[in-house]
Amino acid sequence: MLSSGNLKRFVPDIILVAAALAMTALYALSVGSGFPLDDAWIHQTYGRNLAETGLWSFVPGVVSAASTSPMYTVMLSIGYKLAVPFALWTHGLGALALAVTALVARRMALQVAPKLRGIGLAAGLAMIFSWHLLWAAASGMETALFSMMTMVCIAWCWRELSAARSSKTAHVMARGTTFGVLAAITTLTRPEGILLIAIIGVFLLIARPNMRWRDVILWGVASLVSFTVLMIPYLLFNLDVTGGLLPTTAAAKQIYAAPIRALGYFWGLRLMTIPLLAGGQLLLIPGMLVYVIMVAKRIRNDRHGLLFLLPPIWGAALVMLYAGWLPLNFQHGRYVIPALPALIFAGVVGTGWLLKAAQRSIVARVLTRTLALGAAMLIIVFAFGPGLSSYQLDVRVINEEMVAPAHWIAENLSPEAMLAIHDIGAVGYFAPRPLLDIAGLVSPEFAAVIADPEGQWALMQQGNARYLMAFPDQLPAEDTETRVFARSINRLAKPQSSLAEAK
Length: 503
Description:
mainly alpha, 2 domains, 5-stranded mixed sheet, 21 helices, 5% strand
C-alpha cells in the first residue's frame, strides 16, 4: 500500500495525465467530429483495411505504400480489430502521446536541473498547453506519436548518464537493444526519426557516459542489430512496391516543394520557422539560449554533459532538414511541430535558470519574471484561444470540403465508376472504390506528371476515369470546360469543391 509520502510523489504525474486528457478532449469535442486534415482519413483508411483484410492498402485489395507512418497505421488497426469507435481510439492515442511527452519532459527537467523548484511540472505543463502539440494530439495524425518518441529516445539516452548503470555485458547489450527498438519505432513513425537516431549515436560516441570503449561497442552493436531487424521488413516492402526505401508520398511531395526550394535555403528556413513562433514559445527563446550556454559550461568540465544538448540540437536540426528537403509550412508547420517538445523543454529549463540567476538584482528579477509570466500567459491564451479556434476551423473545412463530398459520392455514384481525385483521404474512407490519385500519393505514376497537365489528362484517360474531384486550383488545366472530364460541374458542400463528370 502506498504511503502518503509516496502518493505525493505521483501528484505531478496525475496532474499532467489529467490535463493532457482534458485538453485533448476539449479540442476533439469542441467541433463535434472529424479531423483537421484530409491526410488523417488516409491513415484511417490504411488502418481499417489492414485490420479487415490484412493488406497494406488504401484501395481495398490493392497493395500500396502511401502511408508515411507504418507504426501509426498498425496502432490504428488495433483499434479497428478491437471494435473501438475510431474517433475515440484515435483521439485517445493522441491524448496518451501528449501525456507521455509531458511525463518524459518532467523527468528530463528534474534530471538536468534538479535544484530548480517546480521545474519538472512546469516543463510538463508547457508541453500540454502548447497549442501546436494540442492540435497535433487531436489531429488524427502521427505527429503526436512521433513527438513523444523523440522525447523518449532522448530521455533513454540520458539514462546512460547514471553512475549506477551496470557494466555487465548482458546489461549493456540489453540497454543497447532497447534503444535500438525505440529507434526503430521512432523511424517507423516518421522516416526523419533516423536523423535524431544518428545525432544521438554521434553524441554517445563522443560523450561515452560511464562507458568503456568495450561497452560503447557492445551497446552500439546491440542497438544496430535490433534496429535493423525491425526496419528490414518495412524497407523490403517499400522496395518491392515502390522500388525505393521511402513511401510513395516522398517523391510526390518533393515535386510539390520544388518551386519553393528553388527560392533558396534561407527562404525555406524562414518558411519553416515562422509557424512555430505563434504562441508562448516565442518568449521562451531567451530561455533556449540560456539553456545552451549553461550546458556548454558543463561540457567544459564534463564531456558527459554533451548529451544535455540533444534537445535544442534535435529541434534545430529538424527545422533545418525540412528547410532544405521539404519546405512546406502548411497546416501550422505540421512537419516541424515535432521539434517543439525539445525546444520548449530547453526554453522552460533555461528560463528557470534565468530566474534563479536574476535573484541578486531587483531589475533582473522584474525582467525575468515578466518574461516567464508572459510566456506562461501566452501559452495558456493560445491554448484556449487562437489554437482552439484554428483547430475548429480546420476540422470544419475538412468536413465541408472533403467529408461531405465523400458521402455524396458514396450515395450517388456507382462503386465501379473510376474516380480521379486530388485529396483522397475522406473519399477512400467513406466511399471506398477504385480511384486514381492525381496528387501521386497512392498512384505514384501521377507524381512524374504533376507539372504536366497534358500528362495528367492522358493518365486519367488511360485509367478510364469517369469523374474528377478537385479544387479549381488543383485541376490540371484552366480550360477544363473543353476537356472530356469537364462537361458539367456539380457543387458539393461548398462552391470550392467540384466534381467533373465525363461525357
